[in-house]
Amino acid sequence: MSEDDSLVEEFFSEVNDKYYPQVLEGIDLLDEQCIEEGIEILSRPLHTIKGVTGFMSGFEPASAFTHKVESFLKKMQSGEVDRKLPQIALAIESVNSIFMLIEQLRETGSYDKAATDDIESRLSGEGSPSSVAGPETGSPVEVESLEDSEIVTVKARRLFHQDQLQALREKMDSMDAGRPVLFDFSESVSVGSTFFELIAEYADSREIGLTGMNNQSMGIFYSWGFQKYLPVFESRESFLK
Question: Are 195 and 165 in contact (CB under 8 A)?
Fold first, then answer.
């Protein structure tokens, strides 16, 4: 293993063991609209990630992107950026995207520049309501009833907000408690840990499975240990058989 490879492995070990748990705590506080506390917790790991990736060959885009996320959070902290739900959603999305970016760089040496550019353009616009999407209108999920189970497709691209979670709870309460339920995340970009907490509440009374999660959602899912309560399936077919 080269010196560069050793540095990368050491960095990702720190990310998984130390930084990411802190970031998840900060994101949860933002989701609860505890802005000051959330940004304070996020500032330490993000500052370190920005500095370290700036010196790691091939990871410079992560450093530059993290710097822009930090700047947005500082503006929110100082009051230059509104602390309304659309701005909070953008803050959470951008912080999560840092980890998606560094994973992409680690695995492939490249990253989804179009997605990163989109977030950067919204950050530079200070998260104005005209440029940042808040909670989508309509139900965040779509239920498909099969012969002996329910398929719940998460339609909201970002599911963090309390009104979305309340709508999901109402859907779950309206279903037959004896029927298995599969949540399909293939149309969703990111969900908060509170989403997994909510559906885990129902795991004692019915069979619940998950499929189609991207790396970002999986990172939150496994970091908080939800695999103890909610099994993950490769596909709809593997759940239904």
Answer: yes
Torsion of CA 230, 236, 238, 241, to 10 degrees: 110
Closest CA to 211 of 178, 177, 179, 188: 188
Task: Quote the CA–CA distance of 137 and 185 in Å, as a whole number.
Answer: 18
- Please report, for the domain that includes residue 70, its CATH number: 1.20.120.160
Residue written as tokens 């695999």?
A: 227
Per-residue pLDDT at 4? 65
Token pair belonging to 207:
């069979």
Record the pTM.
0.59
Angle of helix 113-124 relative to helix 85-108, nearest 10 degrees? 150
Two tokens, residue 225: 């240990």
Whose tokens are 């012969």? That residue is: 147
Read off the pLDDT of residues 76-104 as tens digits, 9 standing for 90 and up.
Answer: 988 888 888 888 888 988 898 898 888 88
Which of 97, 124, 151 is the C-terminal boundary of a domain? 124
Same domain, 9 and 42: yes
Q: 31 lies in which domain range?
A: 3-124
